């Protein structure tokens, strides 16, 4: 399924952002370049206090925060000041997206309701969610339709004003009762002037005393007027109406707020031992993603799943773990005894994943903040190593120069022993026929002593000194 020679594996995140089909994918790729991070924190904790604490401490090091809202005791469901709203404010402040790991797995109508309604109203605060498509691909389409309707609705805020009117009378008591002897035999209110009387001294009109000018008794009637108007939202983002303690409206510098979009990841592979997701199931996931490119950002999988030329899906991978500091990084990693299996950031990113998902390795650390930063550095270094496996320099007899610093992208497969090109595909930029004899000068070729195929991304420009 995975294509280890796919151009997306060698294209810098910033370059991929320019052509990404989903607005959230483009934003996330640019955010990754800005923060030099491809780390997602899986905040599997059981209280809202712990969740918000981890989001704040790890926020500077991550680009995605993965939640399980149904694990949280004390989750505040208020749309404006609740837990989701506070997470949204922290996401703006520290620069990360929120991924609710809901794993929808039902028929289309049900997953639509689970996504947009219910207690949590996931769509209101989570940029990304995910789905298990064992129920069928139509569930993906159903979520896409729900997200499209939400997007159209949220563009406008509904302003509602309510005015309530009641009679002006101080009392609705019958005049005969009201003018009867009160305490001490006195009237409880002044007697109204008699019509036609010369006494026009300033007494209130008859209606004030419970009867109109014709002597009819007033009734208790409330008049309610409801007026609605649709106005453009102040910001096409998550609500900024935060009033919770410790939450502000600061925005992470260097990039705009996340776009008014929602995205989906399809659960295509899992890291657990004995997982029943077959290759056929994974292939169906890729097919569903291609059919819903405007909504599907990518996959939760164990490897990159881009295989066709126009595929540019993101892959996020759980089961990432580093050994304790000071221990051999490439040594074997034990599972948790409950089916979870672990791999290092270097191995996962080498297999084509874009973002590694780390949970207990960070949240169980004595210092989650510094441990998140350690994982960020390791994961980003692994990405840089993967991205750097490309032509550093080479020139053929036609004076065409290959350099990784020019515009235009191609993919070359080269035998690192003989330096002969076997296949070339190119997209963008100016290209010409390439000689099969190449001076391959990459780190991989220098270190390799055996015949083997490596894929090298390169760009082409005309050597200005050549003929």
Automatic annotation (TrEMBL):
**Matching InterPro entries, A to Z?**
Aldolase_TIM, OMPdecase, OMPdecase_AS, OMPdeCOase_dom, RibuloseP-bd_barrel
Q: Where is the composition biased (Low complexity)?
A: 186-198
**Gene Ontology biological-process entries:** 'de novo' pyrimidine nucleobase biosynthetic process; 'de novo' UMP biosynthetic process
A Gene Ontology molecular-function term?
orotidine-5'-phosphate decarboxylase activity
**Keywords on record:** Decarboxylase, Lyase, Pyrimidine biosynthesis
What is the taxonomic lineage of the source species?
Answer: Eukaryota, Fungi, Dikarya, Ascomycota, Pezizomycotina
Task: Tell me which domain of life the UniProt entry assigns to the organism this sequence originates from.
Answer: Eukaryota
This chain belongs to which protein, by name? Answer: Orotidine 5'-phosphate decarboxylase
Pathway per the UniProt entry? Pyrimidine metabolism; UMP biosynthesis via de novo pathway; UMP from orotate: step 2/2
**Catalytic residues (positions):** 101 (for ompdecase activity), 103 (for ompdecase activity), 106 (for ompdecase activity)
Annotated substrate binding lies at 44, 66
List every stretch annotated Disordered: 166-214
Q: Show the stretches that span the lipid bilayer.
A: none
List, alphabetically, the GO terms of the cellular component aspect.
cytosol
Q: What class of enzyme is it?
A: lyase
Cite the Orotidine 5'-phosphate decarboxylase domain residue spans from the record: 38-375
Q: Write the Enzyme Commission number(s) for this entry.
A: 4.1.1.23
Q: Which residues form a coiled coil?
A: none
> Which source organism?
Pyricularia oryzae
The UniProt family comment states: Belongs to the OMP decarboxylase family.
